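dude i think i finally got it to work??
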Amino acid sequence: MWANNRALILILVAFLALAITYSILTPIFEAGDEIWHYPFIQHLATGNGLPIQDPNVKTLWEQEGGQPPLYYAISALATFWIDARDLPERVWLNPHAKIGIPLVFGNKNLIVHTNAESFPWHNTALAVHLIRFLSIIFSALTVALTYALAREIVIARSDLGDEAISTARWGLLRFARNDIPAFAAALVACNPMFIFISASVNNDNLATMLATLALLLMTRLVTRGATMQRFVILGIVLGLGALTKISNLGLLGVAAIVFAYLLWRNRVGEGKRGRGGAILPLTHSPAHPLEIIKGSFVCAALVVALAFWWYARNWMLYDDPLAFNVWVAIAGGRATPVSFASLLGELQGFRISFWGNFGGVNIIAPEIVYTLLDAFTLIALIGLVIGIFRRALPGLIALPALWFILINLSLVRWTWLTMASQGRLIFPAISAVAVLFVYGLSGFQISHFRFQILRITHYGLLFIFTFLLLTFAALAPFTLIAPTYTLPARFSDEARVPNPTQIIFDDQIELIGYALAQKSVAPGGELPITIYWRARERIAEDFSVGLRLLDARGDVIGRWDAFPGRGLYPTRLWQVGEIIADEYRVPLSRDARGPGGGRIDVTLYRRVPLENLVARDPRRNAITPTLARFKIAGQARVQIENPARYEFADQLALVGHSVARDGESLRVKLFWQARGAIDQEYTVFMHLVDATGKIIAQKDDQPQSGAYPTSLWDAGEIVADEYALIIPRDLSPGAYKIFVGVYRANGGARLPVNNDDHITLTTIQISN
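look at this
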């Protein structure tokens, strides 16, 4: 066995190692729809029978309770002995989870994870991991069956016979005989998304195995003879497939076409062969048409006997044999009518989720990875087209191609009803995809092109593509999945906390510091913020963090809500006295207008009932919990009035001004320019003085009423800054001067200007 199947054994060993790694590193209920699949199993394992779906009744299994039951029944038999009564505690939902949104920071975990999931596993965690291992076995069989399917197609490609092929001298034929099955199996085994789903509780794993087995059996009906035994086995497999996943019903259409082909081939004659390798049985005599008809009826009868009851039950309960109506009512249908153009717009998500979109469809690799995979997909398509026109493809490749087309059509139909544009949903046809890929890539290389510089042999693209998939699959658990579920940094040394502050929420939690990785963010960008929390006492509630970005007018221009620790470390888990470094990236609205200043407000709140915790300073005064200020980046066209230049040390320059009377006040607009990067906060003072130097009116404020402090200004930036000086009602008519100066907000030291600490901006005449 080692000599004949050495490649397959190595591929299976690699697949098992990868799948077990994924299973261990992915926390329970974070894989696909596992959070709904397992409760269905637990419901059966505790003897409650098949669930009856009701859109008005909330259940742990949600829409998955409408799935055909075979996978769930097998899993229940494997785990019924485990005490999983802690399931409700393990499903500690993250109310802020961003399911299906991969480009956000944090909030990726569907549930909150605790030490109850740690190894050695017990209770629900043990049951989930055992079912994951069972699923891995099903998928390992899928890999082996893909190898057998590709081998069967290769054998049928030639009339030399199996033994003759093994000794053939023609290079392409030897390549096909020895390596096409291995590459096909490898493409399945190294697909990161297939591994991820294989290492989860998901009925796709059994459905894919049964679909691949059915495809192999139908191929052997063509290549090895239409015997009654093969019809019986196929009927059993098709029935079990229909009892596992509705998409496998498409295999009945493939089987019907195969049966019709067998009858047609028998009629036209067994020995005919068309150009380019027609489908040709190798080792059997033609079956009598009556035997084919009889076998077809037996196969259909077995499918009905095994699966009809389930679809009849659906019809009686839901008036729909497929139960799509109830499924959509629970899962949610599309809000707007779908069009073919809108489906094409979802193709990007489809392709990503075929190769690798982990977690709750919200953890993806860098775009370059998918671009490379797209390039190989395009090459494979070109290779298939070349093979079709040159008639170089084996005729039996039509069988996996037909199954691939049918399952995509069924997915389009399903996607028409609900948001389901996920590439993993065609995994029941993954063996067909692999076979088509291998023939496409090998056809691109061998049949048409010669690479004089690269010297790519018929192994070249297949090897590179397989290596790319394997590298992606091997790195994903450690670089994408595991880091997503890592708890935030925690420590006890307060000296490590930057920008110390103290905001106390409800006498339970302290905000003791913060860090801004950057002070400026452009509209549509993200502002990275780290908040340092400390629990003053044990916390019995799950408080949510609300971060708000506000502009100078106080309008909200960015918001983010989450459990602390990127959603992974809610307040109920905090230890008294520990400091939590809580990271966020708050998105700024594209409608925000810059340049200008904004502020960051932080709240802690209860979700039910919705209520903010009171924020207090150390003196217990209620305060608005403003954490820091930031810059809204942008470019503004500032029209400087009355140009001049007064340089305040090496920090600021006053480059223009305007003065206008507005009723009982003077509106003074100053035009500042930052002479360089400013790391200090400066306050502007403005005095209205009479001829004796007496101050008549005064205004001290940071620029733009404190909304745009100088520490946010860019070097060379010009800022328009307006002030109002209130004119006393009893002010005598006369000439008055306006003095302007600048001092440090921290300490009060004035900046020198023109050998003085202020300038005379202008002299104005006031007459009442």
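The chain has three domains: 2-201+332-481, 495-632, 646-766.
im so relieved honestly
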